[in-house]
Model the fold of this input.
Amino acid sequence: MDLAFTPEEQAFRDEIRAWVRANLPAEISHKVHNALRLTRDDMQRWAKILGKKGWLGYGWPQQFGGPGWSAVQKHLFEEECALAGAPRIVPFGPVMVAPVIMAFGNKEQQERFLPGIASGEVWWSQGYSEPGSGSDLASLKTRAERKGDKYIVNGQKTWTTLGQYGDWMFNLVRTSTEGKPQTGISFLLLDMKSKGVSVRPIKLLDGECEVNEVFFDNVEVPAENLIGEENKGWTYAKHLLSHERTNIADVNRAKRELERLKRIAKTEGVWDDTRFRDQIALLEVDVVALEMLVLRVLSAEKSGKNSLDIAGLLKIRGSEIQQRYSELMMLAAGPYSLPFIEEAMEAGWQGDFPGGVLANAPLASTYFNMRKTTIYGGSNEVQRNIVAQTVLG
Amino acid sequence: MDFDFSDDQVALRDAVQKWVEKAYSFERRRAIVQAGGFDRGVYQELADLGLTGLLVDETNGGLGMGPVEAMVVMEELGRGLVLQPLAQTLLVSGVIGAYGADDVKAGWLSRIASGEALVVLALQERGARYRLDRLAATASQAGGAWTVSGNKHLVAAADRADAFLVPAVANGQPALLLVEADASGVKTTGYPTQDGSRAGDLALDKAPAVLVTANGQAALEHAVDVGIAATCAEGVGVMEQTLALTVDYMNTRKQFGVAIASFQALRHRVADMKMQLELARSMSYYASLKLNAPAAERRAAMARAKVQLGNAMRFIGQQSVQLHGGIGVTDEYIGSHYFKKLTQLEMTFGDTLHHLGEVSGRMQDTAGVFA
Done:
């Protein structure tokens, strides 16, 4: 047992740190460190910088052009990016669909789609949730009917994150109503510029359009865009979930945001208020405990003794902590978190924010936005069902 | 970064587990509780396994092991709900080994390791609560000989111990001294504590003593930190078994014609218990792995760990009782004894609020395990 990273791991971290420092544009990290709004261009600019280095698909094996890093190396990369104030990698392409294409796609599909994902040129969106299918995803109704060498897709997806920027979309679609709901689902790649696709952004409670409804009206999709076999899509999607790793806990971002919370608390004068400060202290303990949990999972992966049944805990705890720091940041600013001045959340705004501390402008919006974290990616109640299953049978 | 146990550590865990299974049944434990809560025979069995000499160097007859081995042992003793002051032995032997003069080491370490001498820390004073910087006991030196006066409470196995490690103010500074139980001016009383183990009060009136270290504050903090890490590890074992008992019960107990393990409201509590257990285990590892860090870093880590453990122990204990229903509040059922142990461990070496204050007071601008 040893808490410290090995000298090799430490050297790897130093290398990543130096590279991120030299290559992450300052105007982007400024936005991230201050929770200012990121544009599509900001996100894609960073994606392309990583892509050029070969690190956008940082979890990819070497045979598909990835760096072939170990679990620990991936963690260190994520940590260095997060601490430096890099935007989160939009996961739908490099983290979510790419592994499915690698595992279940054919050679043509791999050659056609993976390069655009690796370079950051092509923006992917996820088509899973539907108005009637949230936690009960297998009940999804979007139909794909085979007509010759095409599928005709009709239906609606929703909560499609950043779908307004999407070039391509991977979808779970119903290709059969026979048998169990899970056995009639297929995994279909769809060009969002196809005729019959319409995207309607949904304005959220923080004023931003982070998610979308996507409507399919007789959209023609070439049958060659089907991944694997028809009606096996649920299996492929589950494979994807089983490959979600420790990054789901987002502990590296939590560390960065805890440091920011401390700065806000000092500026707002609550750092010296024992009642408030103890709440930060409690969060500090929570963050250390989460990081230890993440490190345990990584260690188990490293030694190949991965019988740990704790990976399911990471999403629950990580999301709760994200909500907690956003809550405490807002409460630290108190009344000065209340002015809703959207321009003040853009970089470079020159106006006067009430109270004079511009850093307070996004706090309430971030708090509102973070309520999503215990809902998406399998609600925390669904996650508890899964954990309970491992414990109780 | 590596959280695997070595083969030797696994073997040590197995040895303790086997002893618990073979030698420490609930019935034997109950008999020990009824007989006052401390059994020298059991203590000697632990000594024969080498556990009392775990942190004693090999030249003094110990195993010369470290914090991770201590953690492994304490987890297993916790799982078996073993009532023995082994945490005391670990911290006392650790402090004498690290701070004691050669003659003190030579005089005591081998006897502690063999089980011949039970030495415990006499820490608690009425006015101090959990603070280590409030000390009323005094030590003075006359003609080269030390004496100690003061009153200590909640001393582990007080009326069965052979000697006490006593913090006392000497020349305006905290010092640590050893007082033998049969010395003049030493009075002990004994009573059971809530978990069934034995404690007592120690009254010292110019009792003859040996100075262990004049650097008492640093040594005392170190001793308590060994105790905190041991308590965390013990708590993990207790919680693990508490959860296992609860899971067994829920899969056995039927209401409305089905096992109560099928009810979602209850299943989610079990998921929350598992969460608390694993966060606590993570922080127990953290505590043990930080025991050899520089003092400020070590102290901060112990406080963080004890906050997590305190909250987890209370939550798991309370939920376990609730999920058992009526049987959970009976003396007959072993689960209630686990609950009482968890409750007592929270208040051992500083409770959650105390340590939250420590974390709060020590907070830096940075965050995380390596900050």
